[in-house]
Amino acid sequence: MGVYFANEYRQFEQEMQKRKAEFLESGCSEQEFLEYYTMCREQLNRDLAYRRRTVSLDHQTEDMDSDGQNPLFSEYLSELSEEMDLPSLHKFWWIDQIENASLLMTLLSFSDEELTLIDMSVYRGLTQKVIAEQTGKTQSSISRKLETLYKKLKKSL
User: Fold this and answer.
1) Is-contact 41 101, C-beta < 8 A?
2) Can you give 18-82 as a three-state secondary structure string?
3) Quick one: pLDDT at residue 89?
């Protein structure tokens, strides 16, 4: 299951917009900035890929209970944990795979409903009729919405 790093990509793009202005003010060309941006984007993708595939090791100490857990862990479990809705975090796993910056920014500007339509149509391969049934909308409204979304995506390429 993929990890959803949309916030990191948004922060990266915001930071790059600030840096672009600084680069251009200092006399750098658009081409030089594009090379810098590409290098930073590749590094970000490598860092996120590392985080996606890395699992932390459990730390073992001598004062563990019979289940192999520190007794304080079970006593303070509610304070140490947070209830998370994992399906919503991983709902759009495929966004992590997008490397085209303008396409990614366009996707990140879409609402959850729009991303859900793209997910259902492209990644789950559902027909417009099935999408309409599942969302409670008409097939024609789904068709129009998808057509609009695809035009926006094409424009960003």
Assistant:
1) yes
2) HHHHHHHHCCCCHHHHHHHHHHHHHHHHHHHHHHHHCCCCCCCCCCCCCCCCCHHHHHCHHHHCC
3) 46
Beta strands in 65-130 (DSSP E): none
Residues 6+ apart with CB under 8 A from 137: none
Report d(CA 72, CA 2) in Å as an integer: 32
Residues 104-129: b if buried by 16+ CB within 10 A, e if exposed: bebbbebeeebbbbbbbbeeeebebe
Distances (CA, A) of 121 to 36, 99, 140, 143: 35, 20, 14, 10
By residue count, the chain amounts to 157
Report, in angstroms and rounded to the nearest whole number, the Rg of the chain calculated over CA atoms. 22
pTM comes to 0.44
Percent of the residues in the chain that have a pLDDT greater than 90, as a whole number: 26
Which pair of structure tokens corresponds to residue 74? Answer: 């079970």
What tokens appear for 45 in the block? 């993708």
